[in-house]
Every structure is written in C-alpha cells, then in structure tokens.
Amino acid sequence: MPMIRETIVTTADAAGNVHIAPIGIIAEGDDWIIAPFRPSTTLDNLRAVPFAVANYTDDVRVFAGCLTGRPDWPTTAAQVVPVPRLAAALAHAELAVDAVTEHDQRPRFRCRVVHRAAHAPFEGFNRAKAAVVEAAILASRLGMLPREKVDEEIAYLQIAIAKTAGPAEQEAWGWLMEKIRAHYGAP
Ligand SMILES: Cc1cc2nc3c(=O)[nH]c(=O)nc-3n(C[C@H](O)[C@H](O)[C@H](O)COP(=O)(O)O)c2cc1C
Fold first, then answer.
1. Model confidence at 186, in pLDDT bands (50, 70, 90)?
2. Other beta carbons within 10 Å of 88
3. What letter does residue 120 receive in the DSSP assignment?
4. Which atom of ligand 1 is nearest to the CA of 25?
C-alpha cells in the first residue's frame, strides 16, 4: 500500500473562490496523488484550475470543521500557485497537476511539488489529535459504514480524547459527535 498523508487541500475555482477539504494525499515517488471521490468541489476545482496546496496542520479543528459545516478557515496567498494556502499551516507544499487518470468514482490527479515552505514548529504527537482525524474519517463515511463499527471505534477513540485532549481537540471532537448523533437521530 502507498503512504498516505492526511492534509488539508486548498483548491480554487476559475473565479478565485477557495475551497478547503481534508484529503489524504497519496505518495508516488516525489509526487502526490489527489484522488477526490465524485462528486466533489475539489474535483471540479482541479479541473478548472490545475493547482492545489497541501497544507500540513496539527489544528484538527480544520479537519472536523470542514466535515461539520464550518468550512471557512483563514487563508493567505501561496508563493507560486494561484491557490491560497491555509494561514495556520505549519508547512505547506504547492502542487501543479501534471496528469489526470480518469475513473468513474475516483479520478487521480498526479501533482508535482513546485514550492515548499515551513511556517511554524511541529510540537509533537498528541493522541487526541490523531483520534479526531480518525473520527473525522468515520464522520465522512457514515452512509457507508455499519453503525456498530462506528460506535465501537468512537468508544475506543474517546479514550484518547479523555486522556490527552486540549481545548481545540475537545471542540473538534464535540463537532464530530454532534454530527454523528444527528446522523443516527440519537438524542
Ligand atoms: C482525514 C480525511 C481524509 C480524506 N481523504 C479524502 C480523499 O482522499 N478523497 C476524498 O474524496 N475525500 C476525502 N475525505 C473526505 C472529504 O474531506 C469530504 O468528503 C469533502 O467534503 C470532499 O468533498 P469536497 O471537495 O466537495 O469538499 C477525507 C476526509 C478526511 C477527514
């Protein structure tokens, strides 16, 4: 299996409107594959403006927020591509689409890194941040997963939240739990 890095991908439409989405970018040599499922704004944007930014952030509220109706996070101009980057990124890679492999469900955009920059120090792993990312993936697949699997995994991830979360992780976790409860119609 290829290595996948969980990032926040920014793209833009032809009018310059930015779109922010959590996407697992797939390593292929020195390149990265962005593989958005149809239909998606990221997919439409990559066709209209074949550039993206892979934003590396440890603010997991961005992952949870994008999946729970909180898509507006501050952005700032990138260095060489016509797509903004996340202002809070610890580091980012600017990407240019080199090739597209068409697919019915999940086309693949092979991207070359055209610029990279670091902005702030990475200050270590935190289990609650990882738990929020895992819960965000579950929350993005509620229609496809059996409820027992979601319940079991959330119960396990909750342990890391209880033991290691700071305020940002607690807030992100709260947004995701609200979405999951609303999906199942639970009180
Ligand atoms: C950690 C993480 C990784 C994800 N990776 C992908 C991905 O590779 N492809 C994809 O289509 N959606 C992925 N998703 C789900 C998208 O973020 C979500 O469906 C989003 O709405 C994409 O659609 P959009 O471009 O219309 O916003 C991921 C979600 C999370 C939390």
1. low
2. 18
3. S
4. 8
